[in-house]
Specification:
The structure is a single chain. By secondary structure, this protein is α+β, with helices and mostly antiparallel strands. Helix content is 25%, strand content 27%. The strands form four sheets. The protein has a seven-stranded antiparallel beta sheet. It has a six-stranded mixed beta sheet with strand order 11-15-16-5-17-18, with helices on both faces. Strands 12-13-14 form a three-stranded antiparallel beta sheet. The N and C termini lie far apart (52 Å). 38% of the residues are buried.
């Protein structure tokens, strides 16, 4: 489970920005919170903001961090460039990008972070709280390492770690037990279905077909059944429609690619959703509402918010422009975040609705559209 994520000097983000999933003192929807140890965590966090305000960059930063730990960038060859993409709007000398994350894995709290340029890892560290007290697993600062556990073996592995590779990755490739859990959190718990946005995950979940069909029925898409045709190189999904007004109550199969963009998107979404709920994963979605009716988008959020559906501590981070979700009967005030571009520096700023202390019964949708919370486009000027 994610506790909080911080990033500095990444694309439109200049100064350190933190997205926290620690619950505030807000007493609304407390039954929906995830309890882990002595922490109360949010199941959902949503980012609003004008176009080009940088909300997608905050999620992209977490995705880049994951990619450097367990994706393609983790396998980078010696002396090759790292995926560095620092703050864009400055002529200053290149400075390091910094990522940091706090999370729970198998009931233990971890803190992992690193800083890097396009050529090398500058700093890296991993702490954990195995018995409620902070303990260092390793730290790295400009090539110098510090270890508190399994020192001899870790010193050997550090000597084998190139300057452009994370020690967390290198040590895990040599099966070091001290770094295994942190690596597995990145590899197993962070899910980015937008990377492919295909129905492959949904298709593969044959054992969940009843649940998937139930969600399709609830979505009122006119679909009563679906099937998979395995002939050919790629599975072909057929959505079955029943025309109730016909004399024989006929059923007609329709290839998924012939369905509306919204139906295709919902079918592609529901597989990763159920997988996350079943396994307690963290879903990262940019523009959740794309091609979806507002009620379908709300349904996806409600599944994560419902403690009877979300029993494994799954979490959802997403961006959206769908103002229908700005509803305090659905979300807590600390679950709603905004991004805004500073007009003087062009840098992204991130802040929570909680900072404005809105009333529990306030119409925050109207307040947002009226500009009370910022993070909206300024539509000015004379078009004549």
């Amino acid at each position: 489970m994610l506790i909080e994520f911080s990033v500095k000097n990444f694309r439109s983000i200049k100064d350190k920005m933190t997205l926290s999933l620690l619950a505030s003192s807000d007493h609304t929807h407390e039954d929906q919170l995830i309890l882990e140890g002595n922490k109360r965590l949010l199941p959902v966090a949503v980012l609003y903001g004008a176009n080009a305000s940088g909300k997608s960059n905050l999620l992209r930063a977490l995705q880049t961090m994951q990619d450097m730990v367990s994706g393609k960038s983790a396998q980078i060859l010696k002396a090759k460039k790292l995926p560095y993409d620092g703050f864009q709007f400055t002529n200053a000398k290149e400075t390091a990008t910094e990522f940091e994350v706090f999370f729970f894995y198998q009931g233990i709290r971890y803190n992992y972070g690193f800083s890097y340029t396009d050529r090398e890892i500058l700093k890296e560290y991993l702490y954990y709280w195995p018995k409620g007290r902070e303990a260092l697993i390793f730290s790295r600062d400009n090539g110098k390492y510090l270890f508190r556990e399994n020192i001899t073996e870790q010193e050997t592995l550090a000597g084998r770690t190139p300057s452009n590779r994370l020690y967390l990755v290198a040590s895990n490739s040599w099966n070091l037990p001290q770094t295994e859990n942190a690596y597995r959190w990145f590899n197993e718990n962070l899910s980015n279905p937008d990377e492919q946005d295909t129905p492959d995950i949904t298709i593969s979940m044959e054992e969940e077909k009843t649940k998937i069909l139930n969600e399709l029925l609830l979505a009122d898409l006119g679909i009563t059944q679906y099937g998979i045709n395995e002939t050919g190189d790629k599975p072909n999904v057929l959505m079955v429609h029943q025309v109730k007004g016909s004399a024989e109550n006929e059923k007609y199969p329709l290839p998924l690619e012939n369905e509306s963009a919204g139906t295709q998107r919902f079918f592609s979404r529901i597989g990763p959703w159920l997988s996350a709920l079943n396994e307690g994963k963290i879903l990262i979605i940019d523009e959740l509402e794309a091609s979806l009716h507002p009620l379908l988008t709300r349904r996806l959020v409600e599944m994560m918010q419902d403690p009877y559906v979300n029993t494994k501590g799954a979490q959802l981070l997403f961006t959206t422009h769908d103002v229908m979700l700005l509803d305090l009967s659905l979300l807590r005030r600390d679950q709603i975040w905004f991004t805004e571009k500073n007009p003087d520096t062009a840098a992204t700023e991130v802040y929570s609705l909680w900072e404005f202390s809105p009333r529990k019964n306030e119409n925050i949708r109207n307040g947002y559209l009226q500009g009370r919370f910022g993070a909206v486009p300024f539509l000015g000027g004379d078009l004549a």
